[in-house]
Each structure stands twice: as C-alpha cells, then as structure tokens.
Amino acid sequence: MAHRFLIKEIALQAGLGVATVDRVLNGRAHVREHTRKRVEQAIKELEKQELQLATAGRKLVVDVVVEAPARFADEIKSALEAELPILHPAVFRPRFLMRETMTTEEVVDTLESIGRRGSHGVFLKARDVPEIAKAIGELQHRGIPVITTFTDIPLSGRIAYTGLDNRVAGATAAYLITQWLGSRPGNVLITMSDERFRGEEEREISFRRALRARHPQLTLIDASGGHGLDTPTEERVRNVLATHDQIAAVYSMGGGNIAILRALDKQQSAPVLFIAHDLDRDNIRLLREGKVQAILHHELRQDMRSACHHVMHYHKLLPASAVSPSSSVVVVTPENIPEHIASRFR
Prior knowledge:
The chain is of the alpha/beta class. The chain contains 14 helices and 11 strands. 46% of the residues lie in helices and 18% in strands. Helix 5 packs across helix 13 and helix 10 packs parallel to helix 11. It is elongated.
C-alpha cells in the first residue's frame, strides 16, 4: 500500500496500534477487512491534512462520529476540512467515522474505543438515548470533551452543543407556511428521519406549536422514520398518502427530499410549498428546479469552527470570549443561494 507517512502517524490517524498498521501496509495475513479499510482511510485523511501536519502549533486529534445520510455527512466533513487551515494556535487532525445508520450499540462501542485509545475531543451527531448519554459521560471522566453537533444530547456530560437553534427553525417553517398558504385549510406533510434525534424532535415540537397558534385549520400528516434515506422515506410517505392525498405543504426535517417528491408525484399531489433543511447537492438542484421553495440553512463551517473552538478552550488554548457562536437559521430561496456553496455544485 503506497504511502509517504510514518507508520506511527498512520497508526495515530487510524486509531490502531503500530504493529497492526505495519501488518496492513506489508500485506501480511490475518488482517480484518474493516481494519485494512480504516488504514486506507487514515492515509487519505493524512493526505488532506498534509499542509497542517507541517504547521507549528499544538496538535489536537479529534474524532468525528456522525450518523447521517451520506449527502449530509459529506457536507459536515467538507465544512470541517475547510476550517482546518485557520484554527490557530492549534493544528487539528480529525479522524472520521460516518455512517448512514448506526445502532445504539455501535455508537457506544465507538465511543468506548475512542476512550481506550485516547483523543483530544469528539464531535458527535447521534441519537439522544440513555446508553449514548452514559458513554459520553464516561468520556468526560476520562478527560475527553464531547461536543454534540446538529442534534443535542443535553443530559450527557457533553461540554457544548453546536448547530442551529432547532426551535427557531421549526417556528420559522410554521411562519413561512402560514404566509404562503394564507387562511386556506389543508394537509401539511411532515417528515423526520428519527424522533430520537433531539434536533429534529425540537423542530417538530416547535413547528406544531407555532402552526397551531397561527393556522389551526391545517392538519399535520406525519410520515417520519425513514432515516433520511430514499427507499424507507418514500415508502413511509406513500403509505400516508394512501389516505391523505391532498397535500398543501411539506416540511421535511430529516432529508430524503427526492424520495418525498417522487412519492408525491406518483400520487399526483403537488404541494404549494416544500420546505427542507440544509444546502446539500440534492437540495440545491431541487431549489433551482423549483421543486423546493425554501431551505432552512445554517452555515456548517461556522458550526464546525465553533466545535473546534470549544475543544481549544477546553485545552486552554483559547479564552471563552473567543469561542465562535453557532450559526443562525437563514431562509434560502432560489434567488439567494450562497455563492460559495452554489459554486461547488455547478
């Protein structure tokens, strides 16, 4: 396996022992496939970090553990990597573990493994369940700070949450629907990937409360639970459309928007308004095509910068007053797609 890094550097990046990495690099027997892939990924990560590796400063290894659809996980990774060159006086070396779905046991095992091998911090997007909250607390006892990102686990010992204010996002979606639909009655389709992601749950609670106050004539139709993945999301939407075929508006809190639109099209249902979250490749295309009317966007780079600053403050490299705040909710339409994001997907 070709590389230009010291074995100990690859081992640190991979979170493996030097002997294990040596066996992988030299093609020796009795190496598990996932171990070989982890070493390959570590080398790719080091190649991206090569400029940072030569930079002077306190080196901080952080683990980025994310359960999310690949389209969103890729955006998180790109946002963090874009921030790496400007995080002085620290030099961050992220190790990524990103999967579209993870069981509670897999998340706990991952956090326990990080605790055993050591880390300067963990950026975590996971469900709010007691087992994961306990694992976070155990990392905190080991002196490894955890920052929850984009969905919070508040009763866990995490040192901070970074990401948009989900209550504000839900209320904003309700306001837009009220303004768009006027006083007419109708059905509003809502979807979450998984209600145990606290961020989405907070959006949903705030949305229901605000819509009930502003527009009680609207009926909410829930098709949640598809994990933001196309096939299960489309199946759930089609199931609810079998009995509720007239949809006036859609508020998609958990993704899978192409699948939602496909299910609506099959039922010949054309909502007046479709509101979604996050400016990924799919959503920008849907905005440009007029299939989605508004995206509730938050600047991922600012959120990842804030997460890094919290780790730097924890390690006494940055005063509390210098920690960046999380990003605010921005309503994006086809007319105001941020150029620095749009240019990546042309």
